[in-house]
Design brief:
mainly alpha, about 0% strand, two-stranded antiparallel ribbon, membrane, single chain, cell projection, flagellum, cilium, 8 helices
């Protein structure tokens, strides 16, 4: 029995797999180190096979040197698209960092090797909650769908115009800081007013040493009011998923 292999289809599928695996390594929620590398590789192979028919149409083998160049280009494209998604979802982590800073938790910073996040309690808690919501709300499926559609906008082996992702990343960083302030803003205002109140109390009664009570008071206020932010997190994550998909699909 003679088995005939379509070399063009195999090459196109491998190029698609390189873009996908580069994307999965960087983009949340797949970048979480708690997901074994073997699972990521199997997911990339499965997705590459799923889009093989899409990427094979119109593909022409470029030769050995051209194929190696195409592999490198696909690696760059996948990494750039994954970084766009990472920047968008960094808004939640940044909001947690602001709460830790103003709430007095920043002294207890630690490095989480699973999510690769260096921050205090609320930074890591917000990051883990966002990852859980991405899987629970099927937001990861929208991200994968956006990645699959990039093969129409950015054909395999064609590279990418770096001005487009750089412009998107610049706008995403600005929106990330704005979103972080909007998420943590109400709690930050309350903590700031608490500091102002303690300052006025110290001016009125210097012997009271009100700032000695400031740290436990701010921690108590943060713990009591941070629960209100978790109520809004599902809607925030949904909005960020839409923004990430729009950015990934708009690069081409």
């Amino acid at each position: 029995m003679e088995v005939v292999l379509d070399q063009g289809r195999i090459e196109a599928t491998m190029l698609a797999g390189v873009r996908i695996i580069a994307f999965l390594v960087i983009a949340p929620p797949f970048s979480y180190n708690g997901i074994p590398a073997r699972i990521k590789a199997m997911l990339a192979i499965g997705l590459a096979l799923a889009v093989s028919q899409q990427v094979t149409d119109g593909y022409e083998s470029p030769g050995t040197a051209g194929y190696i160049t195409a592999l490198i280009l696909e690696l760059v494209v996948g990494a750039a698209l994954g970084f766009l998604v990472l920047v968008v979802f960094s808004a939640i982590q940044a909001a947690g960092s602001l709460i830790d800073l103003f709430g007095g938790f920043s002294l207890a910073q630690g490095f989480d090797p699973q999510s690769m996040v260096n921050g205090a309690q609320f930074t890591r808690l917000f990051q883990m909650t966002a990852l859980a919501l991405l899987f629970a709300s099927d937001g990861y499926q929208l991200i994968i769908s956006g990645l699959a559609r990039t093969f129409n906008a950015l054909p395999i082996g064609g590279g990418i115009d770096l001005s487009s992702p750089v412009e998107a990343i610049t706008g995403s960083v600005t929106n990330m800081f704005l979103a972080a302030v909007q998420i943590a803003g109400p709690l930050i205002v309350i903590l700031f007013l608490a500091d102002v109140g303690l300052g006025l109390l110290t001016r009125v009664a210097p012997a009271l040493n009100a700032f000695a009570l400031g740290f436990p008071l701010k921690i108590l206020v943060t713990l009591l009011l941070a629960a209100t932010l978790f109520v809004a997190l599902p809607r925030i994550v949904s909005t960020l998923v839409d923004d990430a998909v729009r950015l990934v699909m708009g690069v081409g």
